[in-house]
Amino acid sequence: MEKVYYVYLLANKRNGTLYAGMTNDPARRVYEHKSGATDGFSKRYRVKRLVYVEQMYDVNVAIAREKRIKKYPRAWKISLIEETNPTWRDLYEEILG
Hints:
By secondary structure, the protein is an alpha+beta fold.
């Protein structure tokens, strides 16, 4: 079975604070953000809404994409989100399948 990796963006509200991350288990990882299970940026700024997800099959590509997204300007990240999620709805339930 092929491994799948996900690069994602969380927000605390529309046009609010953004957080970029990468995981191989988005349901678990986003749940950790939502529940405040781990200390850090997302807990401090209440960044819990999954607004963007990309899927890839190479861990190195996923890590590089996450790093690139983190370096891009905020306006670019907002455009990326709004291309596929113009209402900034929480995609968490959709990834649970």
